[in-house]
Design goal:
Length: 205
């Protein structure tokens, strides 16, 4: 049963991470501009946040989940503003001349920014809660070991997607010149600003 739940978690984590949203755009842009390490660290921030929400849903931490859902408006506003900030900064940024170093502060910034963006989307917890409940492992007096295996699978499944994405996009990096990268920055900035504006609009209605 543990292996089955772990495999299900892998599929869930991969599937939740795969749709291209603001995090995917950031990962692609950072991989092209700064290298696959920066892109992968960006994805790992999102994977960590996914694992956190998976824990909240899987272990039945209703106090935390209720608080996050109650504060959905402010979290969405904060996330929207941060997306707009990242979009504006991306629009103004110049292509990097070399890949980010493995120990640089830039990698920590990449990780923290995507973690923050994902954690300010409390609707994610509703997705996990629904999936976990459907699988019968929401741990409100349920099977804690089963929830552990499922959450581990979710984290590794999400991480696998970000690894594949950053490695795949990095193959194109050598073929993309600085002029093309400037257009990538502009397009990414516009998309991120659009996501931010949409989040703010949804919070207002």
């Amino acid at each position: 049963m543990s292996v089955s739940l772990f495999l299900q978690g892998l599929v869930i984590g991969f599937s939740i991470a795969a749709p291209v949203g603001p995090i995917g755009i950031l990962c692609i842009r950072r991989t092209l501009a700064e290298g696959r390490v920066s892109g992968f660290f960006s994805g790992m921030g999102a994977a960590t946040a996914d694992a956190f929400y998976g824990c909240v849903a899987g272990f039945g931490l209703t106090v935390i989940s209720a608080f996050l859902i109650e504060q959905r408006f402010w979290l969405q506003v904060i996330g929207g503003i941060f997306l707009c900030y990242l979009g504006a900064r991306t629009l103004r940024s110049q292509p990097a001349t070399e890949a980010a170093s493995a120990g640089g502060n830039g990698l920590l910034s990449s990780y923290v920014s995507t973690f923050f963006l994902t954690i300010t989307n409390p609707m994610t917890i509703l997705s996990f809660a629904a999936i976990f409940a459907g699988l019968g492992v929401v741990a409100s007096g349920g099977d804690l070991a089963a929830a552990c295996w499922l959450v581990l699978g979710v984290f590794l499944g999400s991480a696998a997607w970000w690894l594949l994405l950053s490695m795949g996009v990095s193959l194109l990096r050598e073929k993309v010149g600085s002029a093309a990268l400037r257009w990538v920055n502009r397009l990414s900035g516009v998309i991120l600003l659009s996501f931010g504006a949409l989040a703010l609009w949804q919070a207002a209605v």
